[in-house]
Design goal:
Layout (H helix, E strand, L loop, with lengths): L5 E3 L1 E2 L2 E2 L9 E3 L9 E6 L9 E5 L13 H9 L2 H18 L11 E4 L4 E4 L9 E2 L4 E10 L2 E7 L10 E4 L6 H13 L3 E12 L4 E10 L11 E7 L1 H9 L14 H11 L1
Parallel strand pairs: 1-6, 10-14
Antiparallel strand pairs: 1-4, 2-3, 5-6, 7-8, 8-9, 10-11, 10-12, 11-15, 13-14
Enzyme class: hydrolase
Organism: Pelagerythrobacter marensis
Pfam families: NUDIX, NUDIX-like, Zn_ribbon_NUD
């Protein structure tokens, strides 16, 4: 075993940090006995000689949304973009392994394969031999504009004053444009047109790919779906600018900088 290889330190599914606030690393000697290891890639290393990096699969996964874990929210906000991307990808992968130890086709045990980027049903144990792969779930997140104002929503259970872009999963058989139109109509009662793509962001909590879009509303008459949102409001460009700047008299609290919703708002202001 190569003891020079690095092992990402995790406290269950939470990131462990070193004294500098960066992700903490150990060696493979720190891995729990018989733990499944997922290969994350190679670090930059010295003189181009990178070391292999791994993460250990925990005993249990965590299907809760990130908002249900305030401690994780705070730790994510403290990580650098590079560490956040690395932790997010590792967390998503080991979480998938922890929650897919049995075959969905026959119920037999599965084992890790291809460095952790696949699981195989164990045919020798009477399984069907099916191969399973980590999943990614596409989610549209959209800025909806009408007469120079932007529609933003506050989710159920969110703090007063915190608003963000509307979002929802892409359903089977839908295009991105159709998903944007449907989700906006369902959540706000507003019909949109001219849907365009802006940017994307992996959001592995547990396995989303956020697809950022912009659309124009046909009217500003809102009917809030109270099973999904606490409220919806329209904000002017100056109000969005104040929220992004964090001014004391801003009319709402903007999404955190590590979220794509924050960058969509910055894009809208720049446009």
């Amino acid at each position: 075993m190569n003891w020079r290889a690095r092992l990402l330190a995790l406290d269950g599914m939470m990131p462990a940090l070193d004294d500098t606030g960066r992700l903490a690393w150990g060696t493979l000697a720190d891995a729990p006995e018989d733990a499944e290891l997922v290969f994350l890639g190679f670090d930059a290393g010295e003189n181009g000689g990178g070391r292999a990096c791994f993460a250990a699969v925990p005993p249990q996964g965590d299907p809760r949304p990130r908002m249900a874990n305030p401690q994780l929210w705070n730790l994510m906000a403290a990580l650098s973009p590079e560490d956040l991307a690395l932790y997010g990808g590792a967390r998503s992968l080991v979480d998938w392994h922890a929650r897919h130890r049995f075959c969905p086709a026959c119920g037999g045990p599965t084992r890790i394969a291809k460095g952790g980027w696949q699981r195989d049903c164990v045919a020798e144990s009477g399984g069907c031999g099916a191969q399973q792969f980590p999943r990614t779930d596409p989610v549209t997140i959209m800025l909806v504009e009408h007469d120079g104002r932007l529609m933003l929503g506050r989710g159920l259970g969110w703090p007063e004053g915190r608003f963000s872009a509307l979002a929802g999963f892409v359903e089977p058989g839908e295009s991105i444009e159709e998903a944007v139109a449907r989700e906006v109509l369902e959540e706000s009662g507003v019909r949109v047109r001219d849907v365009s793509y802006v940017a994307s962001q992996p959001w592995p909590f547990p396995s989303q790919l956020m697809i950022g879009c912009h659309a124009h509303a046909e009217s500003d008459a809102v009917t809030v779906d109270e099973t999904e949102l606490a409220e919806i409001r329209w904000f002017t460009r100056d109000e969005v600018s104040a929220a992004l700047a964090g001014t004391p008299d801003a009319p709402f609290t903007a999404p955190p900088p590590h979220a794509i919703a924050h960058h969509l708002l910055e894009w809208w202001i720049a446009e």
